[in-house]
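Researcher: Quick test of sequence recovery. Tokens follow.
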């Protein structure tokens, strides 16, 4: 069943829909068209016997074979047993059983639906293959037929009238020239015919040229490309992307004419445009590079806007289906987006404007939603097309993540490789909470990799003296600090963790460290994030590993891979590799004091990183996947394994 809900107001022409209006209430401005494809009540008792006979004639047994036969039976005979029904429903009674008062069955003979709704589609199966050499030539002929030949003379637009007259004059001149040539070419044949005894006063034969513009375009012209050297190249030499977009633009011009209905109809009568015109454009991004997609969507939006302005404006709604993040990123209005997500049993459809409402409920200033739109436009509209997502905090993780994913894939070869899955990676800093409503909206499996950012609250000191407020109470300040197991005063300054785990009061570190793997699986319920083993969001941050708890990625990485770092520093010293641009204070990695390293991983992360992006590149350049010469921190490994499964 399909229901179309149509709004109208006092400015609309109601002549085509008056018989569909089910309410005289002046405040009711909706009509509902309901389309059904149902089993015919009279033929229903016969369908089982007909199918049994169909099976018996094919002498088939077995459930599997019968299932296959049922599909072939229905494909062949469904039109015999099923009928289309069109109904008008009272909008206020949609949730009530159908009655004579709220539902009217419409016969097709009594209602011309084409006067109410006009559908046109530029589908994805456009003729743009390299083996099709005259796609544009064929479209050019169709374009002329719709935009010139089938228009009344007075309907021709500016410039078209002169073009039409000039073309007719040239064709008349060419007809006269060709007729003269034909006289000479057929003179020998006509002379012999006369010699067959035909009377002199019999009708004299003559071959006349009658050229028609549409036939000329259809059979005798080709679209060519001119390159910079002036050479004429076949239309399929310029790439499928250009061919695809030119195909769309030609088709669009033809459809515009059809929507406006200013081409000739039966007996030279002309109709007004339908009340509602709906245009579908399927996957316009086919074969095109991102820059061309940006230009296309900009131009299409302009063309469609022009159709709804001026004296010849029509009521047009356009639906563009796309898998292109580039097209989505260039949309003028994100609220126009409808997000389709296919589940195992059905497909859910969500409106982006509903997402705006969720953001505004959290932040009435609208800043968070504006940030999201800007971020998606500039960076990550591909998130809307992903099956899974990874939200990471920093540049180091972003650069190293593909290699870490490959390491997981090599270990878990019985699983679908992470690098083969449709996973979008988004760098969000320590602000993943700003994406929380979007994650809940998309309902895609999401891994948030963030940092503990361990700190401690201390009295503020200036010039060696405590700093106090006006009332004499000491001022407090937050300082970064390495993990101290005996300290109950340490906390996390990561606001994202506070958002997702509000039960961890004041971001107390011991409560965050104490959360189990299951507690970090979340689902949104009643506008709150709660732990759930079936959760689609996994929050991962540093965990205790080899008796050590890191505060940041670099902290955890250096603790786990100190030997790897020492090895590449030695190679740099011996000039076996290029200079390590991401490091400074290299001696800190090996400096010994009292039979142990003087500087721990926290010190190395604080004092030995020159530039984080360069550090990641240093690690990648010295990575040996086969020997597995460095380890993935446990918290990231656990998160990636969860995401892979």
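Model:
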């Amino acid at each position: 069943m399909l229901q179309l809900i149509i709004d109208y107001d006092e400015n609309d022409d109601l002549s085509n829909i008056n018989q569909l209006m089910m309410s005289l209430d002046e405040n009711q401005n909706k009509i509902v068209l309901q389309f059904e494809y149902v089993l015919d009540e009279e033929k229903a008792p016969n369908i089982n016997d007909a199918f049994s006979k169909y099976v018996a004639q094919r002498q088939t047994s077995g459930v599997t074979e019968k299932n296959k036969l049922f599909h072939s039976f229905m494909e062949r005979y469904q039109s015999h047993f099923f009928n289309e029904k069109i109904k008008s429903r009272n909008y206020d009674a949609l949730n009530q059983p159908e009655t004579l008062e709220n539902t009217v069955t419409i016969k097709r003979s009594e209602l011309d639906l084409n006067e109410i709704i006009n559908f046109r589609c530029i589908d994805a199966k456009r003729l743009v293959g390299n083996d099709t050499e005259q796609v544009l030539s064929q479209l050019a002929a169709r374009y002329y037929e719709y935009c010139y030949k089938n228009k009344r003379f007075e309907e021709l637009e500016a410039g078209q009238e002169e073009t039409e007259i000039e073309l007719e004059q040239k064709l008349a001149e060419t007809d006269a020239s060709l007729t003269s040539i034909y006289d000479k070419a057929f003179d020998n044949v006509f002379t012999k015919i006369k010699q067959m005894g035909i009377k002199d006063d019999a009708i004299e034969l003559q071959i006349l040229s009658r050229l028609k513009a549409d036939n000329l375009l259809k059979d005798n012209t080709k679209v060519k490309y001119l390159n910079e050297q002036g050479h004429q190249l076949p239309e399929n030499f310029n790439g499928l992307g250009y061919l695809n977009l030119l195909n769309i633009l030609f088709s669009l011009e033809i459809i515009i004419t059809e929507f406006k209905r200013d081409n000739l109809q039966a007996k030279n009568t002309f109709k007004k445009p339908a009340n509602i015109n709906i245009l579908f454009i399927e996957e316009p991004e086919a074969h095109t590079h991102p820059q061309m997609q940006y230009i296309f969507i900009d131009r299409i939006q302009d063309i469609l806007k022009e159709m709804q302005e001026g004296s010849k404006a029509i009521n047009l709604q356009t639906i563009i289906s796309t898998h292109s993040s580039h097209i989505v990123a260039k949309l003028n209005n994100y609220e126009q987006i409808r997000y389709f997500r296919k589940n195992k049993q059905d497909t859910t459809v969500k409106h982006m404007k509903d997402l705006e409402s969720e953001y505004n409920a959290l932040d009435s200033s609208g800043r968070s939603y504006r940030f999201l739109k800007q971020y998606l436009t500039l960076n990550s509209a591909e998130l809307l097309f992903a099956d899974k997502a990874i939200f990471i905090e920093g540049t180091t993780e972003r650069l190293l993540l593909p290699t870490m994913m490959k390491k997981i894939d090599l270990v878990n070869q019985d699983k679908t490789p992470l690098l083969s899955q449709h996973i979008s990676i988004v760098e969000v800093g320590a602000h993943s909470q700003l994406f929380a409503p979007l994650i809940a909206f998309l309902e895609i499996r999401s891994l948030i990799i963030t940092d503990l950012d361990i700190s401690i609250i201390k009295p503020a000191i200036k010039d060696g003296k405590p700093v106090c407020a006006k009332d004499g109470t000491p001022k407090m300040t937050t300082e970064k600090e390495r993990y101290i197991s005996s300290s109950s005063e340490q906390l996390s300054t990561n606001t994202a963790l506070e958002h997702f785990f509000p039960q961890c009061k004041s971001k107390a570190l011991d409560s965050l460290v104490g959360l189990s793997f299951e507690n970090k699986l979340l689902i949104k319920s009643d506008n709150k994030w709660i732990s759930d083993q079936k959760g689609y969001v996994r929050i991962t941050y540093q965990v205790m590993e080899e008796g050590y708890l890191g505060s940041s990625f670099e902290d955890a990485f250096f603790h786990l891979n100190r030997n790897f770092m020492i090895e590449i520093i030695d190679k740099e010293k011996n000039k076996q590799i290029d200079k390590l641009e991401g490091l400074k204070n290299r001696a800190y990695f090996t400096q010994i004091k009292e039979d142990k390293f003087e500087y721990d991983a926290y010190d190395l992360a604080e004092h030995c990183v020159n530039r984080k992006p360069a550090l990641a590149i240093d690690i990648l350049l010295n990575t040996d996947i086969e020997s597995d010469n460095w380890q993935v921190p446990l918290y990231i490994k656990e998160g990636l394994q969860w995401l892979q499964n």
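Residues 264-268 have pLDDT under 50 and may be disordered.
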